[in-house]
Specification:
Largest sheet: 7 strands, mixed
Strand content: 15-25%
Structural class: alpha+beta
Strand order of the largest sheet: 1-8-7-6-4-2-3
Length: 486
């Protein structure tokens, strides 16, 4: 069948199933909505339950696609310029971990930036791979990580010529990107594959004012959270391959190991529909988003105590470019920590931001953004400056991406090693048995198998005081850390 971007093959098949007035003697047990909890139906309506089905005749099978799902994945590949694409209903976490499993055999090395997402650490544990951590650039004054400087990448490639692959983050949670085309040239010159965590970047492909997408810039694989900026439902993502350096069959085998055997047709249909909309309306939709973001930047210019990340911070290398649809507001000059500012905006104005770190709040502008919401955001930030502004905070905290301890054991070996708890303030010098990430953005500060540094202890202590949340540790209050009992 000819690829037609006006079609939604999976959604069309689901609608045909509904029109057949089916008598449902199959899972899920809600029977198309008749058995769903009434209070949930009051919120969602019955329609969404009508397409929440299982692998029925004509609806294909995600773990062995040969019909409408296969065609939907082919359309996704065409949309993003990939040679092969796969649906994930387990988010980008599944995609990144599948790439780790497919990259090589246990004991191999993968070069990984220090600001990788915690899902990558899980992939290393599953695959038995050894990470070679490299330091990303840190944006001055904002204290968040961007891309990896070319000199740092060159050094890692020379020192570890036996590495299997290199992971990049494009763009970061904050919208920053490194020189990915330059990185791709270096990585391919060393005979390695370049894998991209593009969780926050599916929209980059649809407007020339955005940085180039990872596949356009030379990545061999990219994993995208289409739900983050592309309009699909939460937990739905895409995995793309291009260039032949990654074995597509091997990647698919890894996906099948990790992906649920009961995939949600609702999530897959949302991927199919979001793809069609981006393929046909992406440039005009992104123009509206970029105009809204530019308007916010312009209206907040000159507000006392804030600074907005943008072209003034670019250095042409590790901080090579930025995603103009993401607005990062530094509130350090107000004398506020990011979490406090975020809570105030929610409590006083009903404004909910994407995330907050020690010094910044991050606005993620998606396809559903409205000018009215933007106007309220600007008024709320101005009110925040007037009512809560004070003496600037000192910029004296390290970015978590460059707090790396000495590797003692591999992540997989450390995961299975005997462990015991120690107080956080006594943990320096011990080897971590668990990963700990400040969430969001989910960058691990501690990784299984690494020696815990005093910098890590200090960062986590300050993050706890600032009211930031954690993922990973068994003790959610972070009074104790589990360490390896060597």
């Amino acid at each position: 069948m000819q690829l037609d971007q006006s079609r939604v093959p999976l959604l069309e098949a689901l609608m045909e199933y509904i029109r057949s007035s089916p008598r449902r003697f199959h899972v899920p047990g809600h029977g198309g909505g008749g058995g769903a909890p009434p209070e949930l139906l009051d919120v969602t309506g019955r329609e969404v339950f009508s397409i929440d089905v299982t692998e029925l005749p004509g609806l294909d099978d995600l773990n062995c696609p040969a019909g409408v799902i296969a065609r939907a994945q082919e359309l996704a590949a065409r949309t993003f310029g990939a040679e092969r694409s796969f649906f994930s209903v387990n988010g980008t976490t599944l995609g990144l971990q599948a790439l780790m499993l497919a990259a090589g055999r246990p004991g191999g090395k993968v070069i990984v930036p220090g600001n990788c997402h915690r899902s990558v650490i899980g992939g290393l544990v599953l695959a038995g791979l050894a990470p070679v951590f490299i330091n990303p650039a840190v944006v001055p004054g904002f204290y968040f990580a961007a891309g990896v400087p070319s000199g740092e990448m060159e050094r890692a490639l020379v020192e570890h010529p036996d590495a299997l692959a290199v992971l990049c983050i494009h763009p970061t949670y904050y919208g920053a990107v490194g020189d990915l085309r330059g990185t791709a040239s270096l990585v391919h010159g060393a005979g390695m594959s370049l894998l991209a965590d593009e969780a926050h970047g599916c929209h980059l492909y649809f407007h020339p004012d955005c940085p180039a997408g990872a596949l356009e810039a030379g990545a061999d694989a990219a994993v995208q959270s289409l739900h983050k900026t592309g309009g699909s439902l939460t937990q739905s993502s895409l995995i793309h391959l291009k260039g032949g350096r990654m074995d597509g069959d091997r990647v698919f085998e890894a996906i099948k190991i990790l992906q649920t055997s009961s995939p949600s047709y609702v999530l897959m249909a949302s991927l199919d529909a979001a793809r069609r909309r981006l393929a046909n309306e992406g440039p005009s939709l992104m123009r509206e988003v970029l105009d809204a973001a530019a308007w916010i930047r312009g209206e907040l210019e000159g507000v006392s105590g804030i600074e907005i990340f943008g072209r003034n911070q670019l250095d042409g290398d590790g901080i090579f470019d930025y995603d103009p649809s993401r607005v990062v507001i530094n509130v350090r000059g107000m004398g506020l920590e990011g979490p406090r500012a975020a809570r105030w905006l929610a409590r006083k104005h009903g404004i909910y931001v994407e995330m907050a770190d020690r010094y910044n709040i991050v606005l993620a502008l998606g396809l559903g953004v409205s000018r009215e919401d933007c106007r309220h955001m600007v008024l709320a930030v101005r009110d925040l400056s007037l009512r809560e502004g004070g003496r600037p905070l000192p910029g004296n905290i390290a970015a978590p991406a460059i707090i790396r301890g000495k590797p003692v054991l591999g992540p997989r070996e450390a995961w299975f090693a005997p462990a015991r708890p120690v107080r956080l303030d006594h943990a320096a010098g011990h080897v971590s048995a668990e990963w700990v990430a400040v969430y969001p953005p989910g960058i691990p500060v501690l990784i299984p198998g690494e020696e815990i540094s005093i910098d890590a202890v200090n960062y986590l202590t300050e993050a706890a005081k600032a009211g930031m949340g954690f993922q990973g540790p068994r003790d959610q209050e972070l009074k104790y850390i589990r360490v390896i009992d060597l």
